[in-house]
Design a protein that fits this description.
657 residues, alpha+beta, 8-stranded antiparallel beta sheet, 4-stranded antiparallel beta sheet, globular
């Protein structure tokens, strides 16, 4: 695959570089923040070779590419004017909803760190296994070096998060890293014993005595008490600190003369932010973090089995909507404050439930394209990358997706029953197994639940999918007919006896125009199919043939139908009229209704739609154009037609004209 071409096509269809506020990527997705999502050609992107699907969630426009996303991302950045790290200044226009804003912030801060965090976590898990099996002594140089390699990223996490948060909050990255480094500076940690010795081990005084926040004070800053806490591996304090820096830095930026701004702005910002972080932000956010972590642990302790069923069963849904990002900081918080995390441990079975269902579909299907996708998705899933499996295979078929949720819920119940916890954020899929090894007790009952949950989730999903999950179409050998028309060359599975020549009549009274006159690239490019456009004179839409209604938008601006001869027709009243929310439209039909040629489908107020600033030119598209040899206009362009006049001639592939 040409990643360069794919990257250019994706950028073009998200509205071009001018429509992109920022773009980052995770394991499988390009995550865009667009200025106007309506400018993106979602349908074209979904049908594009190399794109699995498109997801809109958490204030992001997510193009799911699969395992090749790093290569596509690199080409995207290289071939555009975007910054080298894929981030450009935000220009959001309307404020996002609070939940969307939170998800966007979390994903923006944590996404760049997860790859290396997982890698070092895998090394740490490997070291734990070496010690557990007595292959390496905990006092050996091998252990010391490998443990430092695995532990360093998480220990100095405040510095790493300071850098990624600086990108999100638009702070000088090096200044942010200095702030993060101050929190874990070794001399501060080492100085506390000396301070204790100087005071005879006695606190200068105690703050909040008699409360859960009781804090002995051993040192001060300019006479202000400093509550000493450990910020190694912490998450929340540094994020809040960098957010605070994003308010302080612009303040000085506006007031310091340009000639000395380069060094005075970071100096003054650091002098304000670091002490305030130690005195106020650090203690307050640490206490808040402790309360949250304790609260989640309390909920978990009430019923670990129920918690496992809920989180295991819903994890894939959270991933689809991008809401899983909200749980990652909680997991890191639990590990940093309590040494272990039960939350993410409960979703372990999800990955293996997915690949169990995918394997069943792959083995049983007779569709070679689906089989090839199944094998690649299965291999990706083994290593924890399940988006290709979800979006490409199980979710479109619905039943397999539900089966995987049920199987993962049962796996989560097993993990909850045995009290399985994660002790570090390691790899995904099979690489995550060492993460559940207790560093103190080694292999115990909670660890034995890991292979049990994996096997149960996998086998149950496989068996249920074999029994109930495959559609009839998946088990049939498709008949492929090569077709060529003015805009498309495609191989599509069709049943030859269903392709019949057909004439569609005009569903409107008005002037006939070419599709090229429609100011929408999805229609005028022929990407949706061939057809014609009409500028209506009367706001009434009628059925162009006998058939069944297959689509009625709740807003009334578009109606689709499948004719008795097999043609799939889309009639779209005006451009961007979906934004009217149904105003000026009266739906006269319903889904799955059998209609006859000339039946009234829709009424709309042409004058009011125009007054609202919308065009009323109406494309009439044959969306399954590749089934036909030709889709020819009978009515001449610029001519006037009335309802019932012959409009389009659909020529058969098999012995037609």
């Amino acid at each position: 695959m040409s990643y360069d071409k794919l990257a250019k096509d994706i950028l073009k269809n998200v509205g071009g570089e001018a429509n992109v506020n920022s773009v980052v990527h995770c394991t499988t997705r390009l995550r865009f923040k667009l200025k106007d999502e309506d400018k993106a050609n979602t349908d074209i992107l979904k049908d594009m070779d190399g794109v699995v699907t498109v997801v809109k969630s958490g204030g992001q426009y997510q193009v799911v590419v699969g395992n090749q996303v790093p290569e596509v991302y690199d080409e995207l950045v290289k071939g555009s004017g975007l910054a080298g790290d894929g981030i450009v200044p935000d220009d959001d226009g309307e404020k996002m909803k609070p939940l969307d804003a939170f998800i966007d912030m979390i994903s923006g801060i944590f996404a760049p760190t997860l790859g290396v965090l997982a890698a070092t976590g895998m090394i740490k898990g490997l070291v734990a296994m070496l010690v557990a099996f007595n292959w390496v002594a905990a006092t050996s140089g091998t252990y010391i070096i490998l443990n430092a390699l695995g532990d360093s990223f998480f220990y100095f996490f405040p510095i790493i998060l300071a850098y990624s948060a600086s990108k999100k909050f638009h702070v000088n990255p090096l200044l942010a890293m200095v702030i993060g480094a101050s929190l874990v500076y070794p001399t501060i940690v080492a100085q506390l014993p000396a301070t204790l010795a100087a005071t005879g081990g006695k606190a200068l005084y105690t703050l909040f005595a008699g409360t859960i926040f009781e804090s002995p004070i051993y040192m001060t800053f300019l006479g202000i008490p400093v509550i000493m806490m450990s910020y190694a591996s912490s998450v929340v304090p540094i994020i809040v600190s960098i957010w605070f820096a994003s308010k302080v830095e612009p303040f000085f930026q506006k007031r310091i003369p340009e000639v000395v701004r380069t060094f005075l702005v970071p100096m003054l910002t650091a002098l304000v932010v670091v002490p305030i972080t130690f005195i106020f932000i650090g203690p307050l956010t640490t206490w808040a973090s402790d309360i949250v972590a304790t609260g989640f642990s309390a909920v978990y302790s009430l019923s670990p089995i129920a918690a496992g069923a809920v989180l295991g069963g819903l994890w894939q849904v959270l991933v689809i909507f991008g809401l899983h990002w909200g749980l990652i900081p909680l997991a890191l918080l639990n590990i940093s404050t309590q040494g272990s995390d039960p939350i993410l441990a409960l979703m372990l079975g999800t990955t293996f439930a997915q690949i169990g269902s995918v394997l069943a579909i792959t083995i049983k299907t007779k569709n070679n394209k689906l089989k090839a996708l199944g094998y690649s998705s299965f291999i990706s899933g083994i290593f924890g990358v399940t988006e290709p499996a979800i979006y490409g295979i199980t979710l479109p078929r619905k039943k397999p997706f539900v089966i995987t949720c049920i199987s993962a819920a049962i796996g989560g119940m097993i993990l909850g029953l045995f009290g399985t916890k994660g002790y570090l954020l390691g790899g995904l899929g099979i690489f995550s197994i060492p993460s559940y090894l207790n560093p103190k007790t080694g292999i115990d009952m909670s660890f034995y639940a890991v292979p049990i949950a994996i096997v149960v989730s996998f086998v149950l999903s496989y068996v249920l999918t074999m029994m109930f999950g495959l559609t009839k179409a998946d088990q049939e050998v498709p008949v492929v007919v090569e077709t060529t028309n003015a805009t498309t060359t495609a191989s599509v599975p069709v049943k030859s006896e269903q392709v019949e020549e057909e004439v569609l009549v005009s569903p409107l009274k008005g002037q006939v125009l070419p599709l090229a006159d429609v100011k929408d690239p999805v229609f005028n490019s022929g990407a949706m199919g061939n057809g014609i456009a009409i500028l209506p004179e009367i706001g009434q839409l009628y059925a162009p043939a006998d058939g069944v209604i297959s689509l009625v938008f709740p807003t009334g601006h578009a109606v689709g139908m499948k004719t008795d001869s097999g043609a799939e027709i889309l009639m779209h009243i005006g451009m961007d009229t979906v934004e009217l929310g149904g105003k000026f439209f009266e739906i006269q039909t319903e889904m799955d209704k059998v209609v006859k040629k000339g039946d009234l489908l829709l009424k709309f107020d042409i004058d009011e739609i125009k007054k609202a600033g919308y065009e009323i030119i109406t494309p009439i598209i044959v969306t399954n154009t590749p089934r036909y040899k030709e889709v020819n206009a009978i009515a001449k362009e610029q001519s006037n037609v009335i309802v019932g006049d012959d409009l389009l001639d659909l020529e058969t592939n098999l012995g037609g004209k």
